[in-house]
Design a protein that fits this description.
This protein has helices at about 5-10, 10-45, 50-60, 65-70. By secondary structure, it is an all-alpha fold. It has one domain. Helix 2 (about 10-45) crosses helix 4 (about 65-70). The longest helix has about 30 residues, at about 10-45. It is elongated.
């Protein structure tokens, strides 16, 4: 059974639901956490109180995706540690 016949045997509504879940899952686990990582890296020393509170809330909300990328991304502040 090839992929074409398998896809045609599944109802279209089911395929749309699977696509929606994949899209939302990718957004939740990949896109937003990466954007949040880079936003925090670029704004860390210039954030105001409200922005920092919002960012901490987003980190809490998107924590599973942040954990996925945490071992691979390391944004240390410049000038700290051994060079």
């Amino acid at each position: 059974m090839d992929l074409q016949s398998l896809a045609s045997s599944i109802p279209q509504d089911t395929l749309l639901v699977i696509l929606a879940y994949a899209l939302l899952g990718g957004l939740y686990l990949l896109v937003v956490p990466l954007a949040l990582f880079f936003w925090m890296n670029s704004r860390w020393t210039r954030m105001g109180k409200i922005e920092r509170l919002l960012v901490y809330g987003l980190v809490f909300l998107f924590f599973p995706g942040m954990v996925v990328f945490a071992p691979f991304l390391n944004f240390r502040l410049s000038g700290q540690g051994d060079n």
